[in-house]
Design goal:
The complex is a heterodimer. Chain A is 52% helix and 15% strand. Chain A has 15 helices and twelve strands. In chain A, the strands form two sheets. In chain A, strands 6-7-8-3-9-10-12-11 form an eight-stranded mixed β-sheet, with helices on both faces. Chain A is flat, with a radius of gyration of 30 Å. The two termini of chain A are 21 Å apart. The model of chain A has no long low-confidence stretch (mean pLDDT 86). In chain B, helix 6 packs parallel to helix 8. Chain B is of the alpha/beta class. At the A-B interface, helix 11, helix 12, helix 13, helix 14 and helix 15 of A face helix 9, helix 10, helix 12 and helix 13 of B.
Chain lengths: 511, 411
């Protein structure tokens, strides 16, 4: 339910992504904005090709090579994830934002024991001192990087504007010269006018570059200095800590050695103690294999894998589909992420196994206070999992609201169509299938993308894109039907009746 | 010896049963030597499908539902049991009969050995001192026992001859299946992109079956292809295109067209909508529904999505680990689910209704805990008219009480 105190963890703003293919540019995502609140489960629904997986992949920073972020920002902990470089992303990917994929078999390595796969990430990032150092400098670093990227981006944009302006000037010039209906004098005049325009544009762009440089100059210098100072302090801090634990170890070892010299009869006992001291020191600086294994076993138990010690040594093919998906979840959890992105984690699974995995994810959400972004095309699963639902179609969010809003008060024709196209256990009415197929995203349709498949489409739907209409504080939908001038449209009978029935049932339950 | 003929059962035809499966078993052998292992994919299932009926086969993956479908259409050689289609036996296995001969022979041999032992004992106990009397008694006893042994041997010989005849008949039947009859049974596969040859045009794909059946007139075949394409909601122009040019839903339509061009009476749909997108699913379900009414098709619908099965099927059989655990009309099954596995399956369906979802309680099925089959092994029994459930005597009593309770509640 609407809660203004909710803390926004991740916020996606006007994200647009396209893929370059042989056939042209596929505009997979065209301006998606949503906020992810702490501790909630946000479900994203849509058919394949609606851009839901692409959005998730962009948040994880694992867009394929031919994908490009055209516009938009993803804000997470004061950083813009669209600007973070690949090297920097290692700080976030897996550790802050974890992801579970659709097919558990293809996301696990078939020739590697699952235990090794679970501990792999822990062992790679085993340097505790380095982690401490990175944590210490993270705030300053992010601030500095953001400022630099802001400046660079603006400069880039200005340069691009100049380039495009020049191009269009050449084009216009040619067009004017080819015209036959005006005299040479007039032509010259027109060209001069265009030229003046171009000059203005260049001037403005250059001014913009100078402005932004001026604006950010002080900040960049300041932040850079702060960052450098912080690095110095952090390095010293970490070094001091390291020295301290080293000294502790050496002192202890020294006393133990003296003891040994004084009393050789207790050799075994003291040797054992020496070993322990050494081990303690290693544990403070590194995650050892033993510790990683311990943690892995704990996580495996947490995700409901029976006999984790035995399972630890097995290969993925020895697991059933549901167990494999549990392993994948365990791998994601070892790094203690704040946000978990689940990309159709149950599509490849059976109904009963699906129910188990959903229960597991729900339990983990509560226990670990995770924020979950859940991608699926099964509305039943959505009803089960979601606090809020975003319905996507053709690279856009067409309706977003709480699960109550979407299921009991849907407003967008696409949501109606989705709801009416799934068979219901309680009735045998003829299904209302959505006619046609999703649009080709190389040439996204003008106006409302769903209009060609919608029987509620109006003339305006083919001309202009509908804005997001606000229905309530939590509920928004992008359809012209919500405009004041639109004729009144009611949802299909099959949907309204279903809603009536389930609300009636719920009323009985509440009594 | 008289000439054999393919087994034909008039009683099935009289009862309007188009497909009858009797004690079907389908085993797969894997490995050799010490690693030899037999997977019992389908273990003794029987059911009938009436003309015009839509029969649903549900169960989790690996329960043998797809194997059943593929055995019916002769993609596998059945291990044991028979499949009757339009009264004719089209597929059969002899494993059971062979085992019967083997075990009965062993049993008979043991019986004979026992008899001989008893005879010797009797002779020993009746031994007297006088040689003549002795001989007489022995002769008498031996004669009586020999008669008994002979009876056992005769019985065995008769049984073996019977079973051998059955085996020979089954082998003959499976070898002499009428192709014309088989073409009346067609299959639609799960993955529409894998089941279409990427190097053949749509027209070639659809008319391939016709050509194999001996229809060589290209012009006529093309006409049939266009007809069937229109029937499934595609246009005639598509005939010259290749499968990769189509979307998933359209490909599945091509798969359906390929099955329909043979004018089938029985359609086996192996998870035809699992690989499709949400919005396309309803299109395909509606298409199948329309075709069923228009052409009077009988459909065997294999799926794991219970809500679709409920919507589409008249009768549902629930499978678990190669066995049918419950079979009833779809209304009845959803009203009175009896077997714990059915209950757990029904409780796992996610509904697009948040309030009921939040209150839904999932029932877990644990075959070891839920059943006690130590005293009596279960068989599929009719608990109500047309409602079968796998149970033993004890469980039947329990289930009957449950039905009564459910009826009371609904009133």
């Amino acid at each position: 339910m609407p809660d203004k105190n909710k803390q926004v963890v991740l916020s996606v703003e006007d994200l647009a992504i396209s893929f370059h293919t042989d056939k042209g540019r596929v505009k997979a995502v065209r301006g998606v904005s949503f906020d992810l609140y702490k501790g909630e489960v946000l479900c994203i629904v849509g058919e394949s090709g609606s851009g839901k997986s692409v959005t998730a992949k962009t948040i994880m920073g694992i867009l394929p090579g031919n994908g490009r972020i055209e516009a938009g920002h993803i804000h997470y902990e004061g950083e813009d994830l669209t600007k973070v470089s690949e090297e920097e992303f290692h700080r976030i990917r897996g550790k802050k934002i974890g992801m579970i994929f659709q097919d558990p078999l293809s996301s696990l390595n078939p020739i590697m024991k699952v235990g090794k796969q679970i501990t792999e990430a822990m062992i790679i990032n085993n340097d505790k001192l380095k982690k401490m150092y990175l944590d210490l400098i993270s705030v300053e670093q992010a601030r500095y990087n953001n400022e630099v990227s802001l400046r660079n981006q603006t400069i880039e944009q200005a340069n691009l504007d100049i380039k495009l302006g020049k191009k269009s000037f050449v084009k216009d010039k040619l067009a004017i010269q080819k015209r036959k209906d005006i005299s040479a004098e007039e032509k010259r005049e027109l060209i001069a006018k265009e030229e003046r325009k171009l000059h203005q544009l260049i001037e403005a762009s250059k001014q913009r570059i100078i402005d932004i440089k001026d604006q950010t100059k002080d900040n960049i210098v300041l932040y850079k200095q702060q960052f450098k100072d912080r690095v110095k302090v952090a390095k010293a801090e970490v070094k001091a800590y390291h020295e301290k634990i080293k000294k502790d170890r050496d002192d202890k070892l020294h006393t133990l050695k003296l003891k040994l010299a004084a009393d050789p009869s207790q050799k075994d006992l003291i040797n054992k103690e020496i070993k322990q001291v050494k081990l303690d020191y290693i544990n403070l600086t590194k995650i050892t294999r033993l510790e990683a294994k311990k943690r892995a076993l704990k996580v495996m138990e947490e995700v409901g894998i029976p006999q984790p010690a035995r399972r630890f040594k097995q290969y993925p093919f020895e697991f059933s589909g549901g167990m494999r998906q549990r392993i994948v979840i365990a791998i994601a959890l070892t790094q203690d992420p704040d946000i978990l992105i689940c990309d159709e984690p149950t599509t490849a699974l059976d109904v009963t196994i699906q129910a188990q995995i959903l229960e597991l994810i729900q339990r983990l959400t509560v226990e670990r206070n995770l924020t979950v972004m859940f991608i699926t095309h099964d509305l039943g699963v959505v009803a089960n999992m979601a606090d809020r639902v975003a319905v996507m179609y053709a690279g856009k969010i067409v309706e977003i609201g709480t699960s109550h809003d979407i299921f009991y008060d849907p407003r967008h024709p696409y949501t109606w169509a989705l709801l009416s196209s799934i068979p219901d256990v309680d009735s045998n009415e003829r299904l209302e299938a959505i006619p046609g197929t999703p649009p080709n995203m190389i040439y996204p349709p003008k106006g409302d993308a769903f209009a060609p498949r919608s029987k509620y489409a109006m003339a305006v739907d083919y001309k202009e894109e509908p804005p997001m209409f606000k229905i309530s504080d939590t509920h928004y939908a992008a359809t012209w039907l919500l405009d004041k001038r639109a004729p009144k449209a009611t949802m299909p009978k099959i949907v309204s009746e279903r809603i009536k029935n389930s609300l009636k049932k719920a009323g009985e339950l509440n009594d | 010896m008289t000439k054999r003929e393919v087994t034909f059962r008039q009683d099935l035809v009289d009862k309007d049963i188009i497909l009858s499966v009797r004690h079907l078993k389908q085993f797969f052998k894997t490995g050799i030597g010490a690693n030899k292992f037999i997977t019992k994919a389908v273990h003794d299932i029987s059911f009938d499908i009436k003309k015009g009926e839509v029969f649903g086969l549900v169960g989790e993956s690996g329960c043998g539902k797809t194997t059943t479908g593929r055995s019916l259409i002769r993609l596998y050689d059945v291990t044991s049991g028979s499949v009757y289609f339009k009264g004719y036996r089209i597929n059969g296995g002899t494993r059971w009969n062979e085992k019967e001969i083997k075990w009965k022979t062993i049993k008979a041999k043991r019986e004979i050995a026992d008899l001989k032992k008893i005879m010797q004992e009797e002779i020993n106990s009746n031994r007297s001192e006088r040689q003549e009397v002795n001989d007489e008694v022995i002769a008498k006893i031996t004669e009586s026992y020999n008669a008994k042994i002979k009876a056992v041997e005769d019985n065995l010989a008769k049984l073996v001859a019977e079973q051998k005849e059955i085996i020979a008949q089954i082998k003959y039947d499976t070898r002499h299946v009428d192709k014309k009859i088989m073409s009346k049974m067609q299959m639609i596969f799960q993955d529409p992109s894998d089941s279409l040859d990427p190097r053949m045009t749509v027209e070639d794909i659809i008319q391939e079956g016709l050509v194999i059946q001996g229809f060589r007139n290209r012009a006529e075949n093309s006409k049939k292809v266009v007809e069937v394409l229109e029937k499934v909601g595609l246009i005639a122009d598509y005939a010259s295109r290749y499968p990769h040019e189509f979307s998933g839903g359209q490909r599945q339509r091509i798969g359906i067209a390929r099955a329909l061009v043979m004018n089938p009476e029985l359609l086996i749909c192996d998870e035809p909508i699992s690989a499709l997108d949400v919005s396309i699913r309803a299109q395909v379900i509606n298409l199948l529904n329309d075709l069923k009414d228009e052409l009077g098709l009988t459909i065997l619908f294999i799926a794991h999505d219970l809500s679709v099965v409920k919507y589409f099927c008249d009768k549902i059989a629930v499978m678990y680990f190669g066995e049918i655990v419950e079979m009833a009309s779809s209304e009845e099954l959803f009203k009175h689910p009896l077997h714990p596995y059915t209950k757990s399956l029904l409780s796992a369906i996610p509904k697009p209704d948040p309030i009921s979802e939040k209150n839904r309680k999932r029932i877990t099925y644990n075959p070891v805990k839920d059943h006690d089959y130590s005293e009596q092994t279960p068989v599929l029994r009719e608990i109500r008219p047309d409602h079968f459930v796998l149970a033993n005597d004890k469980e039947i009593v329990k289930y009957e009480a449950e039905i009564k309770l459910l009826d009371k509640e609904s009133k």
